[in-house]
Amino acid sequence: MPTIYIDDEAYQVPEGDNVLQACLSAGIDLPYFCWHPEMGSVGACRQCALVQYRDAEDTRGRIVMGCMTPVADGARFSMSGGSAGEFRENVIESLMLNHPHDCPVCGEGGECHLQDMTVMVGHRNRRYRGKKNTHRNQDLGPLINHEMNRCITCYRCTRFYNDYAGGKDLSAQASHDHTYFGRQEDGTLESEFAGNLVEVCPTGVFTDKPLVNEYTRKWDMQSAPSVCVGCALGCNTLPGERYGKLKRIHNRFNDEVNGYFLCDRGRYGGSFVNDEQRALFPGLRQSNSTYNAIESIKAIQTLVDWCVPGNKLAAIGSPRTSLESNYLLQRLVGEENFSNGIAVHEAALIEQISGILQNGSVATPSMRKTESADVVLVLGEDVTNTAPRLALALRQSVRNLAKEMASDMKIPLWQDEAVRVLAQDQLSPMYIVAMSDTPLDDIAAQTLTLCPNDIARMGLAIAAQIDSSVPGTEGMLEGFDTETQKLITQISDSLKGAKSPLVVSGTGSQNAAVIEAASLIASALQTNGADGNDSMLSYCLPEANSLGVTLMRNEAQISLDDICQRAAEGNIETLIVAENDLYRRAAKEQIDTLLSKVKNLVVLDAIGTPTLSQSALALPAATFAETEGTLVSSEGRAQRHYPAFLPAEQRDSTWHWITQLGQALALPGFDELDHFDQITAACAAEFPALQQICEASPLADFRNKGLKIPRQTHRYSGRTAMRADISVHEPKQPQDDDTPLSFSMEGSNGSQPGALLPFVWSPGWNSNQSLHKFQSEAGGALAGGTAGVRVLDPANTGSTSKKTNLPVESKAKKDQWQLLPLYRIFGSEELSAHSPAIQELTKKPFIQLTPEDATKLKLSAGDGLTVNIANQDCVLEVQVNTTIPRGCAGYSVGLPGACWLPPATSVNLGKAEIRANSRGDDV
Amino acid sequence: MSSLPLTQNINEQRDPVDLAAYEKNHGYEAVHKALKEMSPADCLQEIKDSALRGRGGAGFPTGMKWSFVPMDNVSEGHKYLVCNADEMEPGTFKDRLLMECDPHQLIEGMILSAWTIQADIAYIFIRHEYHLAARLLQEAIDECKAKGYLGNDILGTGFNLEMYVHSSAGRYICGEETALISSLEGKRANPRAKPPFPQISGLWGRPTIVNNVETLCNITHIIRNGAGWFKSLGLGADSGTKLFGVSGRVKNPGCWELPMGTPIRELIEQHAGGMQDGYKLRGLLPGGASTDFLVEEHLDLAMDYDVIGKAGSRLGTGTMIILDDKTCPVGMVKNLVEFFAQESCGFCTPCRDGLPWTAQVLDDIDTGKGMKVDMVTLKNQVRFIGAIGNTHCALAPGAMEPVSSAMKYFAEDFETHIKNKACSYCKTNSSTGGA
After folding, report:
1. Cβ contacts of residue A617 below 8 Å, gap of 6+?
2. Residues within 8 A of B (CB atoms), A 95-114 only
3. Taking CB atoms and an 8 Å limit, are B384 and A90 in contact across chains?
């Protein structure tokens, strides 16, 4: 490690760093704006100036920018020497010439990097007497507020939006001191990652619109470490609460998972928590179908009556809630009466994936590690819409060629612009074989759209090209036309030459053979790829705990179909459904029948669903922001989320409802389950695959320097006043016996394990830029360790899942269209679809047709089309898409108003009376 | 061998020479010579020996600049030669003369330069307003293509070179070579951080040389007549000739080719005919708007890079702007700083915000609203913006050169403005300079 001298003090700094990064890592507060640990340096703001001396004799030195100066052994710098201090002050003074000084009404105030830096350099007196420039602001859609007058022109926004996230519709416009950052015209920002501008912008140009509309300062928010429930990736988040409302979600840094960035579903999808339709009390259904609010004690009593021994009891868990809730529910009713509530065909796919990841030979990478892939094959997945944050990681992976070129030329990788200039549009190869066009196509070397069976066939052909001994792939290649054969050869050659090839697939195509093919390619690469290659296999899964509840599965558990069967036979009197809308799991007809056969339907949920509204007893559950829970991400990382605030009134955690019920029923063992940790431990003890989940985060008795960790910043205000309109008596702060966190500003936030970081703040650093104070080095892992624990490692037992049948080539059928499941980041996921901001961006359910089909059917874009799927009429908006494979039509999955789509569904769109051909026997 | 080679074919009274006429006067002889008899390394050595320094303003030794171009990876991709014809320095109009009156001279120089660095694609990045030059250059390129001086397998040597004229969208900053490259790539005309230098990673990330029109024109004559001859042309330390210009209130403003090292006094008094009647010389910007003022005491200095440098200014483009005694120096520098503030690309803070701030202070002083403290602010601005390294590129330090030198030589004018709360050069309380 080189030694550099700053004001004659020696510092050992990491090789290859720039001086700014080295200073921050060494704890020296060198102000900066445009540098970002993830995006590197460009030298625009000139704020991180210091003086560099040639040697110990040089007394004059010269001003250099810390972010643009590589560390070199023996290099001498000074923070205060010469005119460095004056220079940094002048920079701030210049940046403030046109700044509106509107901090009191600014959504960034109190967590503004510009405020922090202004104070840090000591600029006070304004000498400029001229007029301020002003700009016209734009309407950038429901997520982001635009106030250009606050801009200090650091270029971070366009560097993130365009360079890092691949956005096209935000740009730097005009020049000199009129430089403007916006769109060419008003309109919603198109990137799925636009929300990160809120955190990337060092001042209040881009702010969180839903937050600004119901504003609370950072210091007044109560927050806790949490995990996003918007998809299976398990991005770490920081929900912030005030007055019982979730105000916003910020990124929580995890070097292995989401790094510095979230997707917009994750950032804005959490406000379903604030839905006013959420019940505050348990509801007992009356004969006239209305609900009477009852006390929770009464609800438990009712439940006890319905669950008496001998009563025919069953329960359905959910992949969108914690292991603990699912585990307790299973224990309550017994595993032979428990279903994890995943749709039958989907459960099979996730089990297949879980089997591959557990027993196969190829490891699934962390999201950070996917960025190191030098060749990527995406097989059958629209990653941006099913696992959005992973798409952002894949966008970084294609830059590895540029990084390699730069390293060859000895250009430091933090020299962001130089690296980009050198490689221009040369990218590491990414190949996408999907069902339709995807938002990653712009960085793909080649794309091809096929129907799922053909994607699988192509995947098997690629596997066979890499390793001809892969069984069952004989003749696969010959089934394709010459052009596709060439592509298959290109992809397999490219993968074979890769040092870190990555295959990405998932449940998106709802096709077992696609999943199998991806696994075969990855393992073929391991044996026949480049020497010493680090083959990776990543599967996108549908929900936050899809993998967790699948790892919890045992042989005795039953499927959703089994539950229906049992109910049809009159063998279920009481059915408890936890956080699950069954209408998203099976055809309406099937669920209608099921629910009609159940005498006592008990539904615990945080959101209103069609299932909940049929319950005899509805129990208000807590959301992710109001309770603790352990989720297993698609990477196999068990992570714990903590309540940022307590649920209002008699809303309660699902796990706590069930604990109370179990105790009321005096079920064996339930009396030992007083605390959350005990439930986690019991779950870990029962399921070998989940043994390590207790290590996901410290237990409730953990103390940081002898103290609990505060959820409130020490500037948290109004504790005695905020309830004064209700009562002048300040209530006792709630105790938290289940976590190491406290509902208070007292405590110690600093050196605790990474999983327990409730907010970032450090003296002088009020903004999220204070994160480096919690990192091992600026931009590095959290000093307290990376949050979460990996529970999945490939055992290489050779037996993956049960062998799937070889897919047959799909042939277009006359008057039949195979419906391809298409997902959308906004709307396809159940919980976020309840958030107002997401709702504004959610499209109507649609069907996508090729232009030829649209012409043939005399349909044009925007037409409504009523399609009958599984005996349910569904009104769909026609979209025309040239990339839809022949004989297929794209169908929007999960969007509000869209019917549940049975696997491999074909429909006849040609007739007025449209009948769905579900189960797809002839496809 | 003309002692004024750059203008030997130039006669403003007639159209520029066409290819046939150019060839008749030894045109493209150097191309025949270099491509057939000299290796790229020979050519580079000749340029190094000639001690030619860049004529765009910075005066960097051309041979040294070229020597950083990697020559071992010829087969791996393109290398580029770019002619910087974005002549936008206020007071400068020398490249226009060369392009409008003898386009083949530039093209020949570019072919030779491309051969030397083994570039296979060349661009002439030309100022938007130079419509005539762009047309004439394109015609000349077409002639060369037809004759086999450009295109594939030039003169049967296997050397390929395509040449394109690219009209700029019109920003001063495009004169900065890396901003020019960004602009040529279709991006914002922002300069790039160096290192890496364009010789290593320039246009489209490939090795690139950017040279000024006049520099490239000189190459023609150096290769044809030899480095020794070229060195002998200069009167002092610098070799060759230079197009010098004078603008302002002189009797005969214009542009002349003269040996390097010609004294300033000779330029103003002989060639420009001296000051107009009733005007006295107060100062001059020797090489365009972004150079420091020189004053009467400097008139006997030779127009050489190092001589002018030692006097506290820069030779720059060698085209001087004269400040007379009836023009307000405060108004003049205000005008210049406003220009530079307007032309800032907006990338780095000192330039983007510091220059408008400086312009605002100067405007206050000029219009009688100045305060004593403003002089402190201005001095601070000079320290803040005026040093290379403080800013992302050289635009803002260049912009501050007339300011700092005006504060030195015309301090009493600033003081009077502030004291009298008015500009004494004009009846109304505002004045604009003569630039």
Report:
1. A282, A283, A284, A285, A299, A302, A303, A306, A600, A601, A602, A603
2. 95, 97-98
3. yes
| A413 contact B CB<8A | no
Residue type, A810: S
**pTM of the full structure:** 0.96
- Residue range B329-420 forms a domain whose CATH class is mainly alpha
> Burial, B251: exposed, middle or buried (Cβ in 10 Å; 0-12, 13-18, 19+)?
middle
C-alpha pair distances (Å), A83 with each of A50, A87, B381, B387, B393: 9, 6, 12, 11, 19
Q: Is the pLDDT of residue A638 over 80?
A: yes
Does residue A735 sit in the same domain as residue A782?
yes
Q: At what angle do helices B29-37 and B103-117 cross, to 10 degrees?
A: 10
The CATH number covering residue A86 comes to 3.10.20.740
In this complex, the residue of A63, A97, A418 whose CB is nearest that of residue B389 is A63
Could you report the per-residue pLDDT of B395-435, keeping only the tens digit for each?
Answer: 999 999 999 999 999 999 999 999 999 998 975 444 454 44
**Tens-digit pLDDT profile for residues A577-615:** 999 999 999 999 999 999 999 999 999 999 999 999 999
Domain limits, chain B: 5-232, 241-324, 329-420
Domains identified in chain A, total number: 5
Taking contacts as CB-CB distances below 8 angstroms, the residues of chain B near A86 are 380, 383-384
B341 SS3 class: helix
Residue A746 CB: number of other CB atoms within 10 A?
Answer: 11
Identify the helix (H) or strand (E) that includes residue A907.
strand A906-907
B364 min Cα distance to partner chain A (Å):
9
The span from the CA of A878 to the CA of A76, in Å, is 66
Q: Which residues pair with B324 in a beta bridge?
A: B281
Q: What is the ipTM of this complex?
A: 0.94
| Residues contacting A626, CB < 8 A, separation 6+ | A273, A643, A644, A645, A646, A647, A651, A653
Distance from C-alpha of B176 to C-alpha of B185, rounded to nearest angstrom: 14
DSSP bridge pairs for B61: B53
Q: Is A42 on the interface with B (CB under 8 A)?
A: yes
Eight-state DSSP code of residue A150: G
| Alpha helices (H) along A444-587 | 452-466, 482-496, 512-528, 546-551, 560-568
The boundaries of the domain holding residue A740 are 216-274+629-645+698-786
Residue A206 in domain: no
Nearest CB neighbour to A130, from listed B346, B352, B360: B360
According to CATH, what is the number of the domain B5-232? 3.40.50.11540
**B78 touching A, CB under 8 A?**
no
d(CA A783, CA A750): 9
Residues of B in Cβ contact (< 8 Å) with A83: 383
How far apart are the C-alpha atoms of B384 and B350, rounded to whole Å? 7
DSSP alpha helix (H) spans, B250-394: 264-265, 305-310, 329-343, 349, 355-366, 372-385
Q: Quick check: helix, strand or coil at residue B38?
A: coil
Q: Which residues of A touch B186 (CB under 8 A)?
A: none
Q: pLDDT per residue over B2-38, tens digit each?
A: 899 999 999 988 889 999 999 999 999 999 999 999 9
